[in-house]
# Entry
Amino acid sequence: MTERMIASLQRLPIGMFVIDEAHCISKWGADFRPAYEALSELKTHFPNARLAAFTATADKATRADICTNLFNRECDVTLTGFDRPNLSLAVEAKSGFKDKLLEYLESKKGLSGIIYCLSRKETEEVATLLQQNGFNAVAYHAGKSPEYRKNAQDKFMTEKDVVMVATIAFGMGIDKPDVRYVIHVGLPGSIEAFYQEIGRAGRDGHASETLMYYGFQDLIKRQKMIFESTSSEQFKLLEYKRLQALLGYCETSSCRRLALLSYFDEDSEACGNCDNCLNPPKVEDYSALAKLIITTIRETGQSFGVVHIIDVLRGAENEKIKTRSHHLLNSFGSASSQSKPLLQTLIRQMIAFDLLRVNLEKYGAIELKGSTQAIMNGETLFMARANDQQHKSTSTQRARTNAPEIELDGTSRNLLQELKNIRLQIARQEGVPAFVIFNDRTLHEIALNRPKSQQEFLQINGVGEKKLEKYYAIFSPALES
# Structure
């Protein structure tokens, strides 16, 4: 678009300009480049030439922006299918991903693939890990010299077994047909970015695989990147919604291809080729645990991150909890029988389902959305997925935590049942799950020790000052009989 180039082109009978990667002209696109804006002047310089713009990744907002900026809304839009049936889709939790990655790549030795990382540091770490384990891995990011990047790209294009470990600096314009897998070890910025990046696999039409490892910390990093940018508030909001859509894709329990294509307004049938289709996740009603999570967030003032919330739920007796007197809350220890991985995935899913939000201005504090009240009122169920490992660790933890240390005699067993009946009545009055009042282990200990005073009652595991004040007078008559 320089004057010299325009003058040279005007001497030629040009019939059409074809603009590739047209989403770059959109301020809502995944890869906005200001230099593309000047292309809108082509119609002025070449009134008799046609303009054609192509892109593989454009949602409604991006398409509308291309039409406005490039064609002044005077254009025809043709949408072809987004479906890539030769690509399999899978998502796994990021915890311990390095061991998982090495195991996965063992079956891919001799094949070309791309591994996308969120940062330069992570790129170098993953490339080094693979090199040390015998893989032909190359690190690629914007911090490398132009010469290094050119050589790395040439190596990737010409050799058959290169694993390109890269940030998003790698990929634009790459057309290697036999990329057999694309792996993300960090959360992409949006569905569009994800779709564009996995689209570099299987361009020869043969079966190829995509895999994403993601965790809560990656979500925090992505949100920071959005809200700490210099973009307009409108753009930040749109990017945040796109990130939420990607989180929804990660946490869906149905066909991932359906979730991916529906984002681009394309109908499809279950693919039978993604991890959820091949191994359908077990979906259960986790409404009771969701209520505990909501209650804990509310009682702690919506001012703490996921680690602290889980510590309170599981009854951890660390300094941070004691300093803030959170061990005296009703919710303290209310989910002591649940594993950390299960609580983590439930919180992630509650964020994905727009029940919770992460407030970066409060250092990642988890806050409640208005929709949580429907769950608390019992109007809506919270159906969530939990993998086999989470079920296993949860059941193991529950068995260990709830196992009675001393068998109760007949009289004590009768007392335990009476205590449970009292607990149930209180729970119904307060509209909370019964174990929010006291868990089974606490009631077992009360039935075993029969505390006769407030001081003795306070010594029971799971009884704090607040619960003593609130419930001692209600339970004590049963202990006197």
Residues 406-480 form a domain with the DNA polymerase; domain 1 fold (CATH 1.10.150.80). The chain has 22 helices and twelve strands. Residues 410-430 form the longest helix (21 residues). The two ends are 92 Å apart (CA to CA).
